[in-house]
UniProtKB/TrEMBL annotation:
This is Centrosomal protein of. Residues 148-167 are annotated as: Disordered. Residues 41-139 form the Rhodanese domain. InterPro entries: CEP41, Rhodanese-like_dom, Rhodanese-like_dom_sf. It comes from Schistocephalus solidus.
Length: 167
């Protein structure tokens, strides 16, 4: 039957592939000239910012890629090419961070459940990175929640009464 031949455009639909060749878009292509391969060879880590795209575009650590946590809600194609290239690769790690460790631990747990063995968290997230390295590590302008001036307390933190300090 000509209508179901491998040449037929309907053949791939019947086989569940549809109009997109999923494998050609998703598998990491690691030719010797591939920038992805060069990154794997030169950098032993992949730094992923799991905040949404707007927050990432406003401020992120130099060298980080954006991987919004919402990507994990996909049943298929939840991984980027970079993630596939670094997944369980010997001597390579994937580092996740967010603003203050509210989202990244959940992302790390889900990735581990999906077979990743080399996922780590950046302790303290962007908040601690900004505090320790306010210049030279972070691109963009930090959100107001990260900007705490010396001597000032965040709005939710109360001043300790002097009676408790023994004064």
């Amino acid at each position: 039957d000509q209508s179901l031949s491998p040449v037929s455009p309907f053949y791939s639909v019947i086989c569940g592939i549809g109009e997109i060749d999923v494998d050609s878009d998703r598998s990491p292509v690691l030719s010797s000239t591939s920038p992805l391969l060069r990154d794997c060879a030169t950098k032993p880590y992949l730094l992923l910012d799991v905040r949404d795209s707007d927050d990432f575009n406003n401020c992120h650590i130099i060298g980080a890629l954006n991987y919004p946590a919402t990507m994990l809600s996909r049943c298929m194609n939840f991984e980027t090419r970079e993630m596939l290239a670094f997944r369980n690769r010997p001597n390579h790690i994937i580092i996740l961070y967010d603003e203050d460790e509210r989202i990244a631990p959940r992302v790390a747990t889900i990735l581990t459940q999906r077979g990743y063995d080399n996922v780590f968290l950046l302790a303290g997230g962007l908040k601690v990175a900004w505090k320790l390295f306010p210049k030279g590590l972070i691109l963009g302008d930090a959100p107001p929640s990260l900007k705490v001036k010396p001597g000032k307390r965040p709005s939710g933190e109360k001043k300790c009464p002097s009676a408790f300090l023994g004064l």
